[in-house]
């Protein structure tokens, strides 16, 4: 959920009428939080890795799409990134190796998934596709109607391109407790992201896409104080795998 808050996030806050009482000091605090998050970013080479029992000849094919949660921002060890945690959990639960293709990019919004992350998806022939998206749409202060439309576009496009794969969406968290954000801004940012997260399951209720609702985390943030940390990603991965391997709804 890329940490570029100083520009689009503050524009969104202004549009929502939530900048009252935010001082220059606190705006600088947001900028410091963004610089800190960028300084901690690691280049996780996740694409094409295989996890699980090597002896099995028929791997599950997992594709991850979306934003910085998939790219691993806030995580220092690659094995604790959300895509790898999902792959490892799938391997443990199914006894099969898992081939991971990771396409998520920091800062991506819903329309970015459709516009730049679906090329060649059909050729990958995925069994499971996991998308993390919505936070950056919320941070940008976009209208909920437009965000809903883009979610439906993502669902339709991913389902069509993946050829019947199970599709799971990792929802947007309410970030009002993110420790990297100065307190006057923290609540406002939580309002912007939480309003998306609380609606995603409803928006996609008439599609085969399963939604993992994150809610309002109060702890387990990464060292950047914004993204889920290494204790949170295995838990989220377990929720994703429950959805991916559960009965079709």
Task: Outline the secondary-structure elements.
Blueprint: H1 5-15, H2 24-39, E1 49-51, E2 60-66, H3 68-71, H4 82-94, E3 98-102, H5 110-116, H6 121-124, E4 128-132, H7 135-139, H8 144-162, E5 166-170, H9 183-197, H10 200-203, E6 210-212, H11 233-245
Parallel strand pairs: 2-3, 2-4, 4-5, 5-6
Antiparallel strand pairs: 1-3
Helix pairs in contact: 4-11, 5-8
Overview of this protein structure:
- The protein starts with a helix and ends with a helix.
- It is globular, with a radius of gyration of 17 Å.
- The protein contains 11 helices and 6 strands.
- The protein has 249 residues and is α/β, with parallel strands linked by helices.
Average predicted confidence as pLDDT: 84
Kindly provide the radius of gyration, computed on alpha-carbon positions and rounded to a whole number of angstroms: 17 Å
Shape: globular
Structural class: alpha/beta
Largest sheet: 6 strands, mixed
Oligomer: single chain
Approximate helicity band: 40-55%
N-to-C SSE string, H for helix and E for strand: HHEEHHEHHEHHEHHEH
Total number of beta strands: 6
Trace the largest sheet across and list its strands.
Answer: 1-3-2-4-5-6
The termini sit apart by 27 Å
How large a portion of the residues is in β-strands, by DSSP E?
Answer: 5-15%
Task: Specify the number of helices.
Answer: 11
Low-confidence stretches: 2-27
């Amino acid at each position: 959920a890329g940490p570029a808050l100083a520009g689009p996030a503050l524009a969104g806050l202004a549009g929502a009428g939530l900048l009252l009482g935010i001082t220059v000091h606190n705006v600088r605090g947001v900028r410091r939080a963004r610089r800190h998050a960028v300084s901690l970013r690691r280049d996780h080479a996740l694409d094409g890795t295989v996890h699980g029992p090597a002896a099995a000849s028929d791997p599950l094919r997992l594709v991850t799409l979306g934003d910085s949660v998939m790219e691993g921002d806030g995580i220092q060890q690659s094995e604790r990134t959300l895509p790898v945690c999902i792959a490892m959990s799938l391997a443990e639960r199914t006894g099969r190796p898992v081939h991971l293709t990771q396409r998520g990019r920091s800062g991506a919004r819903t329309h970015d998934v459709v516009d730049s992350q679906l090329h060649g998806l059909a050729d990958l022939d995925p069994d499971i596709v996991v998308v993390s998206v919505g936070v950056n749409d919320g941070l940008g202060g976009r209208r909920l109607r437009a965000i809903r439309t883009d979610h439906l576009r993502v669902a339709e496009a991913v389902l069509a391109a993946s050829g019947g794969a199970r599709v799971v969406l990792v929802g947007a968290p309410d970030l009002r407790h993110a420790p990297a954000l100065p307190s006057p801004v923290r609540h406002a940012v939580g309002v912007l992201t939480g309003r998306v997260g609380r609606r995603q399951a409803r928006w996609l209720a008439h599609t085969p896409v399963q939604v993992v609702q994150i809610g309002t985390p109060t702890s387990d943030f990464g060292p950047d104080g914004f993204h889920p940390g290494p204790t949170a990603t295995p838990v989220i991965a377990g929720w994703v795998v429950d959805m991916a391997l559960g009965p079709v709804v």
